[in-house]
Write a structure and sequence with these properties.
The protein is mainly alpha-helical. It is built from 2 helices and no strands. It is flat, with a radius of gyration of 39 Å.
Length: 120
C-alpha cells in the first residue's frame, strides 16, 4: 500500500462516523415530526368528526346535483364524441383521396381493357 492510500484510511473512518451521526440525527428528527403529527391529528380528531357529521348533508346535496348535471351533460358529450370521431375519420381520409382516385382510374382502365364476359 502506498503512502497516499495509507493517509486516506483514517479520513474514511471519520467520514463513515459523520454519515452515521447524520443518519441518527435524521432518524430522531423524523421520529419527532411523526410524534408531532400524531399529536395534532389526535387533538383535531373531535373537530374532524363534528365537521364530517355537519357537512354530510352538503356532500349528499353535492352528489345529487352532480348526478343531475351528469344526466344533462352525458348526451351532449356522447354527441360531441361521435362528431369528433367523424371529424377524425375525415381528417385521415381526405389526404388519401388522390390515391383512391388513381386506384379508381387504374381499375376502370383494366376493366375496359378486359374482354366482356360471355353471357350464358
Amino acid at each position: 500500500m502506498d503512502a497516499y492510500a495509507a493517509s486516506l484510511e483514517p479520513h474514511m473512518l471519520e467520514l463513515g462516523a459523520i454519515i452515521l451521526i447524520v443518519l441518527v440525527v435524521w432518524a430522531i428528527v423524523v421520529a419527532g415530526v411523526m410524534m408531532l403529527k400524531s399529536l395534532v391529528a389526535l387533538l383535531f380528531l373531535p373537530i374532524r368528526l363534528i365537521l364530517s357529521i355537519v357537512l354530510l348533508p352538503v356532500l349528499l346535496l353535492k352528489a345529487l346535483i352532480g348526478g343531475i348535471l351528469m344526466l344533462v351533460v352525458l348526451p351532449i358529450a356522447a354527441i360531441a364524441a361521435v362528431v369528433g370521431f367523424i371529424a377524425l375519420a375525415l381528417a385521415l381520409a381526405v389526404p388519401l383521396l388522390p390515391l383512391a382516385f388513381i386506384g379508381l382510374v387504374i381499375w376502370f382502365v383494366l376493366r375496359a381493357a378486359r374482354p366482356p364476359a360471355i353471357a350464358a
